[in-house]
Amino acid sequence: MKIFENIINYKINNMTATELLKYASQFQVSITKQQATKIAEYLRGKQINIFDDTERSKIVKEIAKIAGPETAREVNRLFIQFTK
Questions:
Q1: Into how many domains does the chain fold?
Q2: Cβ atoms 24, 78 nearer than 8 A
Q3: Which ranges of the chain have pLDDT less than 50?
Q4: Matching InterPro entries, A to Z (predicted)?
């Protein structure tokens, strides 16, 4: 199971805005292209573990500062879908 976590975390840490929009569409999460760009720029290069609830919560709070609380809730919902 750890290998899947590593793959998912790697993908999130290197995600582009286009990929984020694709996943958002696939999981019915509503974000704009501009928000996806800002979020992807923030996530890129960080060593984030979305399977750690504390770390994911911290990231979602930062996303709320960047793109607003509603978008952060949507992105959190997307992250939760990735961890299932």
A1: 1
A2: yes
A3: none
A4: DUF2624 (IPR020277)
What's the whole-model pTM score? Answer: 0.80
CB atoms within 10 A of CB 45: 9
Supply the pLDDT for residue 1.
Answer: 67
Tokens 């790697």 -> residue = 10
Torsion of CA 51, 15, 75, 60, to 10 degrees: 60
Q: How far is CA 2 from CA 5, 17, 31, 68, in A?
A: 5, 26, 29, 32
Task: Tell which residue, 45, 34, 43, has the closest CA to residue 71.
Answer: 34
